Amino acid sequence: MRLAASILSADFGRLEEQLREAIAGGCDWIHFDVMDGHFVPQITFGVPVVASLRPRFTEPFDVHLMVERPEHQIEKFVEAGADLITFHWEATAHPHRLARLIRESGRRAGIAINPGTPVEVLTDLLEEVDVVLVMSVDPGYAGQAFLPRSLGRVRRLKRVIEQAGLPVEIEVDGGINPTNARSVYEAGADILVAASALFNQRLSPRTAAEQLKAALRFGA
Ligand code: DX5
Ligand code: ZN
Question: Where are the alpha helices (DSSP H) in 169-204?
Fold first, then answer.
């Protein structure tokens, strides 16, 4: 089980330091929530943030594109050093072609689905991707409550992947905290993403990551 630290809730003035702390606490990946103000209402950040952090970290960079026309963005994020590039099924008419493009660029391909999209739409795409990202909140903001329905969705997706006999990993993103982490893992998740559970005023990112990792292992 891996934990991906989403920088969305971090203090951007101390980004490197905060990420080092989260990694010291057990975070495995760095997750970048790229938002364009169209696919989702908010605008966050893009290629320069990924490129400037790249030489400073060896951890996998996990880029989650919440943008329309993601096909226009792939080349730049490949150059910036993304390891996994995830786009939304809802954002493109050609998910098959896009996943191939990412893999042909030498990166891992991920496909994300919103809470209202049935997991079964991915059945014929699984061969083309390395990761499916199941949104457990509506994309757009950090700090939203986990949708409990997501557990059943992860279980169903896990079955579809097993039936296909493919090595596709499941990533779950949105509202992850020490109380629900273990049940999401038991439902079939391989990677959990967290923003507000790691970067908040209450705990240091290191302590927050340690608590989340402990909850994953032993339950809350
Ligand atoms: C939501 C983003 C998530 C978000 C998670 O649109 O894709 O990665 O940062 O934030 P929390 O963990 O606070 O729900
Ligand atoms: Zn995300």
Answer: 181-187
